UniProtKB/TrEMBL annotation:
Keywords: ATP-binding, DNA-binding, Nucleotide-binding
Key word ATP-binding present: yes
Domain DNA mismatch repair proteins mutS family: from-to ranges: 688-704
Family to which the UniProt record says this protein belongs: Belongs to the DNA mismatch repair MutS family.
Entry protein name: MutS protein-like protein 5
Any one GO cellular component localisation term in the record: nucleus
Annotated region (Disordered), positions in chain: 1-65
Biological processes annotated in GO: chiasma assembly; mismatch repair
PANTHER family listed in its UniProt record: DNA MISMATCH REPAIR PROTEIN MUTS FAMILY MEMBER, MUTS PROTEIN HOMOLOG 5
A Pfam match: MutS_V
Single GO MF descriptor: ATP binding
Lineage, highest ranks first: Eukaryota, Metazoa, Ecdysozoa, Arthropoda, Hexapoda
Length: 850
């Protein structure tokens, strides 16, 4: 893999990172601490060193090995953010928020550990127990390999310290050596914002806590406050994952949230998916599949074997001979439900009957799916995995549930009812309980014998918790309290003109059988608890199986889209190349009547830097996005919209396409552009793809052109072995001349023809370069007023010739009036030479005309 996939915190990792061109010098890690030992750059500007407020014990061993790597992680709402620092490479690395959760096995957290190999971990103690448990285990593994004590290294801090506002404030206390000392507060904040994306809540929380931890442990870490030991801050890639930031996701329309159109359904969170890649691909038939697809799209992978595995499933599902099998699989998947929501209730033995039913149905269908997968295991490793991903133990779980729960009666009684044959005592009690009515019928005549003669009828009944009662219809319309008293019988209550009494016989029955219902319920509850305990042992297997089902659903969905739109399987290689034949933009091709496909060849032999020019609206942006989307899709395991695609594994996809100004970012549009460009140039390796659409248009042409030239020159100077794939479009036609010649650069235009002043777009990419964006022709074709088009043409011609341009306000006067024309004619007819009265003559004639 590429250099970024190694531990970036190692000193070697630092060396491999290129130095930075552009604004953010500190991000390069090339700065040294303040040479004068000036106290104006402390490690952190706030907080008292030497104390630590964490709950776990701290190692205060000042002689400890100083190869300390501190990782701070924060996980909330399914998003993990992290920040890390090592003493040997004193740069902070941040990992922007990324989807990770226990259903996905916290894969991101695990690869972060493998990559960073932290010696200290800082996190919030209110994280889910599963998260803390995993951290413990990971750290334990790490510590075992280093022969260190676990508890000295896991630091849990209260939740209150991870509040976004406080965290951001803490982050702004960070002073970096690249920043001028005299920066006022606002500019300092803007400087920090230009380095990291402050909208990434989890990352900011993790970073803030890391800074606080470092600040409180200066002495222990052998850092002096005078010495600035944080030399920079950089974004970090996670191993086996393609680095893509949120701006790129937005620019490529991977996800698009639009507010819900229904006024009734409107809430601040009511979003629905707009036109997006996710929307196009999501044909999953279960929530698990949709969730898996979202995660897959948020975690494009560089793992070749994983991608090959996904491709094989898609190929299988696209085969017309397997249509029925796929339908059967989908039938099962539809019945599978995500049980994570019901888990707390289930494990607390409080699951409702519908929840038990859904658990049983889910388990049953997961096993059916396993059987289908096993039938086709030969040649499809993903199906082979079904055996281990869906363990046989689940058969037993299903069998036990079926054997124990009487679903039909449970539904009627709205409580957990156990089937006969599970417990002898229970069966006996139920038998007695079932025979109670017969017994009570036999008792009624006996009770009537003991009653006064004026009472002609009675019955015996049983009420749970009250016990046995004699029920007598009212023998008079109105009965006084005294009249209701019957010797030997104790009055209980009246309901529906029936008076209920406790007789001596009832009291005896209460003693022997009265709590039978309660005992039955208690025994059934105990059986349920045992069942829950058993299920709990297999819950992880069930959750793993659900993740397998989600993945299968997602891959079937990929296959359906690939089939419908004619996508092909990309060949993934470890070479530095992107070879796409007749590529298409998956969304754009659905929006135009006929889409023109285009090729993309990038690599050492084809050139790594492509500069695209073309008239406005000739298809440059669409082409750039098309390449990025195809490259991106290939790393999700999906097929791609092209005739043929061979793609070298990419470690990062950067784009500078769309500027989303937001109040939250508090950066101007141009600063956002700069940050995106700077991040790309700093991070990109030879295996990265940079897509740049019209960088520099947010400032003056000269400034924009200069910056773009500088960024590009920096990348090209890295040579064929280190230059990333760069595809950029620009209206700065002098760019190519300014950069100079290099075999790495190839120039392209999007074909068009101008016929009789009319511009016709062909959208076909061809080698070449244009010198004009034909904006005036575009304006004409798009209904701009002829007067404005003419004036624009006039100015353009004047600029080309270098002649002067008459300001628009004087322009009208340029058109001579009739009087002026007459005057000019008269003027031309004069013999001017040697006429001393010429001025007087002219004046007189002018006044005459006026
Ligand atoms: N390959 C294509 N086939 C068919 N239509 C296309 C193709 N590419 C682009 N178009 C159409 O052209 C329109 C303009 O494309 P695009 O926005 O990419 O132009 P542009 O060159 O980037 O323009 P500008 O320089 O003004 O930003 C698209 O909205 C789409 O309708």
């Amino acid at each position: 893999m590429t250099s970024t996939s190694s531990n970036p915190l190692s000193p070697a990792g630092q060396d491999e990172t290129p130095s930075v061109a552009g604004t953010s010098a500190s991000a390069s890690g090339q700065f040294n601490s303040n040479e004068n030992g000036d106290e104006s750059s402390p490690l952190l500007s706030e907080g008292a060193p030497g104390e630590d407020d964490c709950e776990a014990g701290e190692s205060s061993d000042s002689d400890s090995d100083k190869d300390e790597v501190i990782l701070s992680v924060y996980w909330k709402n399914g998003k993990l953010g992290a920040a890390a620092y090592s003493l040997q490479n004193p740069v902070i690395f941040v990992v922007n928020d990324i989807v990770d959760d226990f259903l996905l096995g916290f894969k991101v957290l695990q690869s972060l550990f493998l990559q960073i190999q932290p010696t200290q971990v800082v996190t919030c103690k209110n994280m889910q127990p599963k998260f803390i448990h995993l951290l413990n285990n990971l750290l334990l593994g790490e510590m075992e390999s280093r022969d260190q004590d676990l508890h000295a290294n896991l630091h849990l801090f209260p939740d209150a310290e991870f509040r976004n506002d406080n965290s951001l404030r803490q982050v702004f206390t960070l002073r970096l050596p690249g920043e001028p000392d005299e920066y006022p507060e606002d500019e300092h904040k803007q400087f920090i914002r230009s380095l990291i994306d402050t909208s990434q809540d989890s990352m900011i929380n993790a970073l803030a806590r890391l800074l606080k931890y470092l600040n409180n442990n200066l002495a222990w870490l052998c850092l002096s406050q005078q010495e600035n030991k944080i030399l920079g801050i950089r974004n970090m890639c996670i191993d086996q994952q393609v680095w893509i930031n949120y701006e790129t996701y937005r620019a490529l329309q991977i996800f698009t949230h639009t507010a819900h159109p229904s006024l009734f359904k409107w809430t601040p969170d009511a979003h629905k998916e707009g036109l997006s890649i996710f929307g196009l691909f999501n044909r999953c038939c279960s929530k698990l599949g949709t969730k898996f697809m979202r995660t897959t799209m948020l975690q494009p992978t560089t793992n070749l074997s994983e991608l090959t595995k996904r491709h094989e499933v898609i190929t299988f599902c696209m085969n017309p001979a397997h249509e029925d099998v796929v339908k059967k699989m989908q039938g099962c998947i539809r019945q599978v439900q995500s049980i994570s929501g019901m888990l707390p209730r289930l494990l607390a033995a409080q699951a409702t009957i519908p929840q038990w039913k859904s658990l049983k149905k889910t388990n049953h269908n997961v096993l059916l799916l396993r059987e289908i997968c096993c039938q086709f295991a030969d040649g499809v490793p993903f199906f082979q995995e079904a055996k281990s991903a869906i363990p046989e133990a689940l058969y037993r779980v299903g069998h036990i549930m079926e054997r124990i729960i009487d679903f039909q009666t449970s539904e009627q009684m709205k409580r957990f009812v156990v089937l006969p044959g599970v417990d002898n005592d229970l069966d006996k009690m139920k038998h007695t309980y079932a025979n109670l009515s017969e017994m009570m019928m036999e008792l009624s005549p006996l009770e009537l014998q003991d009653l006064p003669d004026y009472i002609e009828e009675c019955s015996v009944l049983f009420l749970p918790e009250i016990g046995f009662l004699v029920s007598i219809p009212m023998w008079k319309d109105y009965l006084t309290k005294e009249e209701m008293q019957i010797p030997g019988f104790k009055f209980k209550f009246i309901a529906d003109r029936l008076i209920h009494y406790k007789s001596p016989r009832c009291r005896e029955l209460d003693m022997s059988l009265g709590d039978i219902y309660l005992r039955i319920s208690e025994l059934e509850l105990r059986i349920m608890l045992r069942l829950v305990q058993y299920i709990q042992q297999h819950i992880d297997s069930l959750l793993d199986s659900l993740s397998y089902v989600g993945e299968l659903d997602c891959l079937i969905s990929f296959a359906e889209v690939a089939k419908e739109f004619g996508y092909v399987k990309p060949t993934m290689t470890s070479e530095q190349e992107i070879l796409i034949e007749k590529g298409r933009h998956p969304l754009q091709e659905c929006c135009v009547s006929s889409y023109v496909p285009n090729d993309t060849f990038s690599g050492k032999t084809h050139g790594l830097v492509k500069i695209l020019t073309g008239p406005n609206a000739s298809g440059k942006s669409v082409y750039l996005k098309q390449v990025a989307v195809i490259a991106y899709l290939a790393h999700t395991g999906s097929f791609v919209p092209a005739k043929k695609a061979v793609l070298g594994i990419l470690d990062q996809i950067h784009t500078r396409i769309q500027t989303t100004e937001s109040a939250a970012s508090q950066l101007s549009a141009f600063l956002i552009d700069l940050r995106q460009m700077n991040t790309a140039v700093c991070m990109a390796t030879k295996s990265s793809l940079l897509i740049v659409d019209e960088f520099g248009k947010g400032t003056s042409e000269v400034d924009g052109l200069s910056l773009l030239t500088a960024f590009l020159t920096h990348l090209i100077r890295r040579g064929p072995n280190n230059c990333p794939h760069v595809i950029l479009s620009t209206h700065f036609h002098r760019l190519v001349d300014l950069i100079g010649k290099s075999p790495l650069i190839k120039t392209y235009v999007l074909e068009h023809i101008v016929s009789e002043g009319e511009l016709v777009y062909l959208f076909q990419l061809k080698a070449g370069q244009i010198r004009s964006s034909l904006a005036i022709e575009v304006a004409k074709a798009n209904g701009i007023q002829p007067a404005q088009v003419n004036r624009a043409t006039e100015i353009l011609n004047a600029l080309k010739d270098g002649s002067s341009i008459t300001p628009i306000l004087n322009h009208k006067k340029m058109q001579p009036t009739k009087m002026e024309e007459d005057f000019m004619k008269f003027f031309c007819s004069l013999e001017l030479e040697n006429d001393p009265n010429i001025v007087e003559v002219l004046k007189t004639r002018f006044l005459e005309l006026k």
